[in-house]
Write a structure and sequence with these properties.
10 strands; Umud Fragment, subunit A; alpha+beta; 188 residues; 434 Repressor (Amino-terminal Domain)
C-alpha cells in the first residue's frame, strides 16, 4: 500500500530518526514503511499519524484539494493588509497543512517576490514552539499582526523579525494563532 508518510515527515521537517524516536522504533523501520518495503498496519498508521499530528486516513489515499481562505496581503516591512481584490478571497489547491491559510505577497519583501502566494499551517498558541525559526503569519487579538521569522527570546517571550534586512523586530504577546509557512507558490 502506498502511503504519504515521507511527504508528511518532510513537511514537518523531521528526519527519519526523529520520527522514529517519536514513534518508538528505528530509522530503518521508518524507511521501510515509507517505501512500502514493509506492510503498514493500522497500528503503524495510528502511531505515525499521532507523531505527525494527523489523522491516520491522511497518510493513505490521495491528497485533498482545498479551498483555502486568503486572509490578506503582505507589504513592505512585513505589514499586513487585510484588503483583497475581488476574487482573491480563496485559493483552491492541495494544501500540505491541517488548517491552511494563504497570503499573497503584495510587494517584494525579503526573499519573497510580489505575486508570490504563501500557504501557512495555522496552529493554536500552545503549539507555537513548532513554528520557532520559521517564517510565520501571526495573529493577535483578532487581527493578523505581522509576518516574519518567529523566534523566542531568552525570557521566553516571542519575537517577530520581518523579512526585510534592517526592519525592526517586534516583541509579541502570546498569539491567538501562528501559522508557519509550509508552501510557496511562485508564478514564473
Amino acid at each position: 500500500m502506498r502511503t504519504r508518510i515521507r511527504y508528511f515527515r518532510r513537511l514537518r521537517r523531521l528526519t527519519q530518526a526523529e520520527l522514529a524516536r517519536r514513534v518508538g522504533t528505528t530509522a530503518a523501520t521508518i524507511s521501510r514503511l515509507e517505501t512500502s518495503d514493509m506492510t503498514v498496519s493500522t497500528d503503524w498508521l495510528e502511531k505515525l499519524a499521532s507523531a505527525l499530528g494527523l489523522r491516520a486516513a491522511e497518510l493513505v489515499g490521495q491528497p485533498q484539494t482545498s479551498h483555502i481562505p486568503c486572509v490578506g496581503q503582505i507589504g513592505r516591512d512585513g505589514l499586513f493588509d487585510r484588503s483583497l481584490a475581488a476574487g482573491d478571497e480563496t485559493l483552491t489547491l492541495e494544501a500540505p497543512a491541517r488548517d491552511p491559510v494563504a497570503l499573497r505577497i503584495h510587494a517584494d519583501v525579503g526573499a519573497y517576490c510580489a505575486g508570490d502566494v504563501l500557504i501557512a499551517d495555522r496552529l493554536p498558541p500552545e503549539h507555537a514552539a513548532r513554528a520557532l525559526g520559521r517564517d510565520c503569519i501571526v495573529e493577535i487579538d483578532g487581527e493578523a499582526s505581522g509576518f516574519g521569522r518567529f523566534v523566542s527570546s531568552a525570557d521566553g517571550s516571542f519575537l517577530l523579525v520581518p523579512p526585510d534586512p534592517g526592519a525592526q523586530a517586534r516583541f509579541l504577546p502570546t498569539p491567538d494563532w501562528i501559522a508557519p509557512v509550509v508552501m510557496l507558490i511562485r508564478h514564473l
